[in-house]
Input
Amino acid sequence: MSSQLVPQKAVAKPRLTSAFKQLWSIHWIMASGYLLLWVGGFGMVRLPEDTALQDNAYTLHKSVGALTMALLTWRIFILQRVWWRKYTRRLPKFTGEWIRTFLLHTAIYLFMLAVPLSGFLLSNSYQSGNVPFFWIATLPDIFPEKAAIVELARDLHFWIAYTFLGFVALHLVDQKKYVRSLWRRVGKALKKTSLN
Output
């Protein structure tokens, strides 16, 4: 019996489009931005009032918030390209899991817009021209200055931001397999670094 080598078919890996790679990259950039906003927002309100440190913390917070709005616009544009390529060939299977994931992601996108908008409402209501962009420029007002709604705007910004954080936690639970594999990779990388 002659032993012949049987050619093995290469297992085709799904091809990632450049739009999908861009979407994935912007996902992590925005996730980092929102993490900075939550941590920074929590810390800046506890700083001594009317100090340079607090002023700079607010400037950074507002600037990153404005940047996330710009990134969100870009992200939605890229998402439309990904969806167009994916769903023009074949419509999704409208399973319970797909609908749940779609609704969760839709809510997250709405919060990604609502949080910075409520921050603009708070800043603009408090004082016109009060949203700086990284010590370079002042952004145009979106809302009129109105001292009467400052407290309402502050409450809205707080509750929308922390409700958004709750939805992000749901997203992490929904993606638990990926989060676990990412955690393992980070652990391995840290072990390698500590051994060197």
